[in-house]
Specification:
The protein is mainly beta. It is 0% helix and 50% strand. The chain is elongated, with a radius of gyration of 25 Å.
Length: 218
């Protein structure tokens, strides 16, 4: 500092103009660089007409499940994906709901319950007053089957999403309630077999929510 010079003992060769670090023994070493190589596989289309979509990993079967809205008919569909090296293949799509509709504010949420080995899907049902619904999904090979639907709110929902709590073996659903001044709501869901039950929704944010989204972590 102030134009003064400080001398250190070099550890190894110090090229001119390269940054150095001070070691614990008082010597200095040139900052090393390492190259990390990466590669991408080939993109594979799972559907040509998709709107809102979400994805989760099945740790039991080592598969992925994509839930999405088919824009050609507004059906909610799921498809199983298998990763092998840098490649991915898909099974056949299966319908879990009809007429879910949706643009940017009518999203599908999905998470995986590793205890029950079930996926938990939440969506907005345009058939019944745009209410919030949920359904379980189970993978077998490259196929997927569904349980019965359950309503987590009869109000109009937006930005519904879910995450799994492995400690209590519960799923939490959050959403924006369009009939309650766009407040942020949360409700706890429990899986029993292929059925779902819910507790009472509660407000977690009383301000208007226009981008409520919960990252699924499990």
């Amino acid at each position: 500092a102030g134009g003064k010079n400080v001398s250190f003992v070099a550890s190894g060769t110090l090229p001119n103009g390269k940054p150095v670090i001070l070691n614990a023994n008082g010597t200095v070493t040139v900052v090393s660089e390492s190259t990390i190589s990466s590669s991408l596989g080939t993109a594979v289309a799972y559907n040509d007409d998709t709107g809102s979509c979400a994805i989760a990993y099945d740790s039991t079967n080592n598969k992925i499940l994509i839930a999405y809205r088919n824009t050609s008919n507004d059906d909610g569909e799921c498809i199983v994906g298998t990763v092998s090296g840098t490649s991915i293949s898909f099974g056949s799509a299966a319908v879990f709901a009809t007429n879910i509709q949706g643009d940017g504010n009518r999203q599908i949420g999905i998470c995986f319950n590793s205890t029950e080995s079930k996926f938990f899907i939440v969506y907005r049902d345009a058939t019944i007053n745009n209410s919030g619904r949920a359904i379980t999904a189970t993978i077998s090979g490259t196929s997927v089957s569904f349980g019965s639907t359950a309503v987590f709110t009869t109000d109009v929902t937006n930005h519904q999403s879910c995450s799994y709590d492995s400690t209590s073996n519960k799923v939490i659903v959050i959403y924006r309630n369009s009939l309650q001044s766009n407040k942020g709501y949360a409700v706890v869901g429990t899986i029993s077999g292929t059925s779902i039950s819910f507790g009472t929704p509660v407000v977690f944010d009383s301000t208007s929510q226009y981008g409520t989204n919960l990252v699924s972590i499990h």
